[in-house]
Amino acid sequence: MLADALASVQEHPMAWLALQLLLLMLAVLVSYAITRALLVRILGRAARITGPRFDDAILGPGVISRLAHVAPSLVVYYGSTLLPAIPDTVLPGLRRCVSIYLVVAVTAAIMSLLTAIGAAYERYDPQRARVHPIKSYLQLGKIIVGMVAAIFIAAALFDRDPLLILSGLGAMTAVLMLIFKDTIQSFVAGLQISANDMLRVGDWIEMPQVKADGHAIDLSLHTVKVQNIDNSITSIPTWRLYSESFRNWRGMFDSGSRLIQRALLLDQTSIHFLGAAEWEGLQRFTLLNDHLASKRAEFVMAADLDPVNVRRSTNAGIFRAYVRAYLRAHPHVRHDMDIQVRQLQPTATGLPLEIYCYTATDWQRYESVQAEIFEHLLSILPEFGLRVFQQPSGVSKAASEARLPRSIDDAFAHTPR
Fold first, then answer.
1. Going along 100-211, which residue ranges are E strands?
2. CB 369 within 8 A of CB 359
3. In terms of Cα–Cα distance, which of 62, 70, 57 is closest to 106?
4. Which residues, 6+ apart, have CB-to-CB distance to 54 below 8 Å?
5. Which of 142, 195, 310, 352 has the least C-beta neighbours within 10 A?
């Protein structure tokens, strides 16, 4: 009875073709279901072997579902030749379309796998991912997979051997080098940056030539994204970070200390030798006890001899010693790191007295400590008979000279008893 039904269907070409296509579609659905079940089982075992770190990558979104299309594509590719109802003129085009679909499905699965591997690497080992990012390598792998897929698709479209097309690309090497110049440069630069540990995700970098000043939030094959202080994003070509200079503040954060380096501009006309009254007035500075004790012998000797023939202390030198002692006693200055107070080259705007010390890296605390130090020093300057240099204008010059004492004796003379 079944044979009679098939014979009657064969008498109608369109019905016979529809039946064969229906059987082919049924075979495709069955092969897809079986392949998907097998992949879930096989890859599930592989995920258990690799552990919880990369199970999400192996069973990542799109990997199994796209790989499952391989078997149905093969069923259509080879099964179409077994269907006599399909015209010979349609069969080559159908097989080409199936070949292209097969290449696209495999390529998409590999792309999804590489993406899932990168996400799993960053999720389960963030510290290692920050120090040694693999995003650029994964992107390069995707480019290579895409190029290979393009060769196979071209071979399917023109019905040529893929090796023949690949050999023909050898003559286009110069063109390919020109097209992928930035990619090649960026990849080589990425290797050098990673090998020399020049940049990590989260590092604070400063690159004025591209107006970048902030944290590196993404390192990829072609670009490095920097989130600036104002929350704007600067994208820098990766090769520029290797071919040009930039400042990385990672060492500052790793050490837990930030440098304070600023200068006070002293009015050079306010610098003078200390007199007896000034020397006695400085005895009330507790921070100067050790320094004044070491200088007392010189001061006593200078009192008995002609001042031009002996060493004498100056108010600027005593103030420099006071600043050093103040910094060493400050609770928010790092005492285990360098503390320096030095004079720079005198200029037309005064004598720079540079403060060099370290404090916490926290931005708010750093600015607060720095402001506190210099506010104190500016306020204590008149106690040493010193003035800070400031460009005068109009009556401000006379007013400032009348207001600021020239020596510590003048300061005591106007202090209420």
1. 204-207
2. yes
3. 70
4. 47, 117, 120
5. 195
Q: Is pTM beyond 0.90 here?
A: no
In order, the DSSP letters of 353-372 are EEEEEEE-S-HHHHHHHHHH
Domains, the chain, with CATH or none: 2-179 (no CATH), 198-249 (2.30.30.60), 258-413 (no CATH)
Residues of the chain below pLDDT 70: 1-21, 40-62, 80-90, 131, 165-177, 297-311, 392-417
- Euclidean distance between the first and the last CA atom of the chain, given in angstroms as a whole number: 131
- 298 within 8 A of 310, measured Cβ to Cβ: yes
3-state class (DSSP) for residue 69? coil
The CA distance from 399 to 378, in Å, is 18
307-326 pLDDT per residue, tens: 566 667 889 999 999 999 99
For 360-408, how does the pLDDT look when each residue is reduced to its tens digit (9 = 90+)?
888 889 999 999 999 999 999 999 999 998 876 654 555 555 555 555 4
Buried b (16+ CB within 10 A) or exposed e, 240-263: bbbeeebebebeeeeeebbebeeb
Residues 261, 355: contact at Cβ < 8 Å?
A: yes
Half-sphere exposure of 253 (CA within 13 A, CB side): 11
Contact present, 44 and 59 (Cβ < 8 Å): yes
- HSE-CB of 147 using CA atoms within 13 angstroms: 11
Closest CA to 130 of 194, 188, 87: 194
Contacts by 250-256, CB closer than 8 A, 24 or more apart: 250/200, 250/203, 250/204, 252/204, 252/361, 253/204, 253/361, 256/360, 256/361
